Amino acid sequence: MAFCWSNASVPILGLLSLLLLLLLLFLLPPHHHHHDELHAPPPSAAVITYPLSFREAPEFRNGETCSSSLNSTIHIAMTLDGNYLRGTMAAVLSILRHSTCPENVAFHFLWVRHEAEVLSRLKSTFPYLSFKVYTFDAKRVRGLISKSIRQALDQPLNYARIYLGEILPQEVKRLIYLDSDIVMVDNVAKLWGVDLKENVLAAPEYCHANFTRYFSQEFWSDSELSRTFEGRQPCYFNTGVMVVDVEKWRNGNYTQKVEDWMVVQKQKRIYHLGSLPPFLLVLAGNIEPVDHRWNQHGLGGDNIEGKCRGLNPGPISLLHWSGKGKPWLRLDSKRPCSVDHLWAPYDLYRMSKHSFEE
Ligand SMILES: *[C@@H]1O[C@H](CO)[C@@H](O)[C@H](O)[C@H]1NC(C)=O
Ligand SMILES: *[C@@H]1O[C@H](CO)[C@@H](O)[C@H](O)[C@H]1NC(C)=O
Ligand SMILES: *[C@@H]1O[C@H](CO)[C@@H](O)[C@H](O)[C@H]1NC(C)=O
């Protein structure tokens, strides 16, 4: 079920959203948070009542400089979940809108079960999208999940990112994994083109964050376990935005390595979060750092209350509502945070009044 896709970018709207972004950058108080953490996904137990209806996105076409060779494809992997559909739609739109070569972007969606309504909405919202949908077998991970501090993090789909190497076809050698609560406001080709050097994964790295607190006292006091960080300088990274060399991931058995830590966690509580800590255990200190602009995370606030957060200073290419608060829920509740107005222009939900009309 792959479709072809094209683009007519909307320069004026692009410019307007950039201006809005810049305006907000100046208006919002800078705020450092190393607390948020957490990847995106499956939010609270909010159940979407169908029918959820979306406007059709415009057709986005390649610019003249774009190559049409097969190896110019940019592979993006995301999860697909009825509860997060509004976020997914906005994320996809934002990527295409800011892409110089939107027809070269191919999406790989993972879901845990076939949902005909989700699929038909995706197709009717993006009739030209190049995408494939894969089923992630929740059984693969069910026995390995330990309860975290936020129920939403315990959804099997949240763990699908560990299995991308085996789910995606062998010809996919590199991919960008993205959470569903992001919008990209820059050309995805720039992120795609990062030099991974000898590393299996690239992501923004936060070496000033207190790394200790991502693991329990039990972990740190067990010298055999904590020795895993020997010889590296581990730093926090967020698994909601990752560039992965899938070939290296497969050949290095990284899925197995991450799973091994989840087995340890089952026996002994070595961390409190979901799928993030085992990634840190395997890879922290051994990733290729990417500019922080590619994951302005924590906009959803903390994991407990989802309080409003401002933006960190500096340029931004990707906004990420990790944490408990999601922009579509806060906008609907009529008590949005300032940063949520940066998400609104990408909202294709039909009922919303805050989105633009073509
Ligand atoms: C894509 O393929 C062309 C022709 O085979 C080759 O010259 C080019 O280096 C390839 N580009 C990448 C990014 O692999
Ligand atoms: C880092 O976090 C740990 C565990 O929460 C705490 O004991 C330690 O004091 C913190 N270190 C710094 C430098 O804040
Ligand atoms: C990966 O696992 C396979 C099969 O268990 C094994 O043959 C291979 O040596 C492993 N590779 C690495 C790099 O650990």
TrEMBL record:
Its main location: membrane. The keyword Ribonucleoprotein does not apply. Its EC number is 2.4.1.-. It is an enzyme of class 2 (transferase). Pathway: Glycan metabolism; pectin biosynthesis. Keywords: Glycoprotein, Glycosyltransferase, Membrane, Signal, Signal-anchor, Transferase, Transmembrane, Transmembrane helix. One of its GO terms (cellular component) is Golgi apparatus. GO terms for molecular function: glycosyltransferase activity. It is found in: Endomembrane system. The keyword Membrane applies. Residues 1-33 form the signal peptide. It holds the Pfam family Glyco_transf_8. It is a single-pass type II membrane protein. Belongs to the glycosyltransferase 8 family. PANTHER family: GLYCOSYLTRANSFERASE 8 DOMAIN-CONTAINING PROTEIN, HEXOSYLTRANSFERASE. This is Hexosyltransferase.
